[in-house]
Amino acid sequence: MTGTVPDLKEQAKKKAAVAAVDEHVKDGMILGVGSGSTIVYAVERLVERVEQEKLKVVCIPTSFQAHQLIVQNKLLLGSLDTTPILDCAIDGADEVDSDLTLIKGGGGCQTQEKIVASCARKLVIVADYTKDSKTLGEQYKKIPIEIIPLSHVPVSLKISDRFGGKTQLRMGKMKAGPVVSDNGNFIIDWFFPEGITDWKSVHEYIKLIPGVVETGLFVNMAEMAYFGLSDGSVKTVTK
Ligand SMILES: O=C(CO)[C@H](O)[C@H](O)COP(=O)(O)O
Hints:
Strands 3-2-1-4-7-13-14 form a seven-stranded mixed beta sheet, sandwiched between helices. A four-stranded antiparallel beta sheet has the order 9-10-8-11. A hairpin with a 5-residue loop joins strand 13 (222-228) and strand 14. The longest helix has 17 residues, at 8-24. The protein has six helices and 14 strands. It is an alpha/beta fold. The chain folds into two domains: 8-132 and 219-230, Rossmann fold, CATH 3.40.50; 142-216, Alpha-Beta Plaits (2-Layer Sandwich), CATH 3.30.70.260. Ribulose-5-phosphate binds next to helix 2 and helix 4. It is an enzyme of class 5 (isomerase). It holds the Pfam family Rib_5-P_isom_A.
């Protein structure tokens, strides 16, 4: 047999992204553009539709990566200063539970992603089948938390004292020292213990620790999720 076997997971990401863009993007809309590898497929599809259908879509980035995708693909770049109310935001996720509670921030962009999502009339998630869980922690074991750099030791202690588990300062690859977020902050990954169910309370507790900028827990934010499945179909979950 010749040729390469298509990567099922990449195909699944693409299917989910295309379905979401086809169903939610409309002419004249203000669209939040998420971050991560699945979003690259969403932007590809958006570019096709903008060119073929001559759509006018103003794109609000959720990260430096999203900003680059918008600019490099010559999409219309907007900002929250000029368009603080969005029709829709399309974004990826690291894990999605059956209530559409999300873990985000695998790429360290959760703060801007959450700001943009909070300004959108609806948040639509695109992901492959490995992100679709009944409860958080089935597949993804950590919550990314953006923090002010000098607070990393006390914040880490306060989280593990209250909830258990362990924290890790996210370190750079090809760079000595910690990852620096798009906002100039550090990221702690909290490897949470099993058995947590009330993620809203967990988010609220952590968010109030001085030094915490934002958690990667998105509770009651997503309205719909598209999961590309390994058989080539797309599963949708609506809140
Ligand atoms: O939250 C994110 C970045 O902060 C991403 O949306 C999340 O990590 C999913 O990424 P991918 O589509 O590459 O799996």
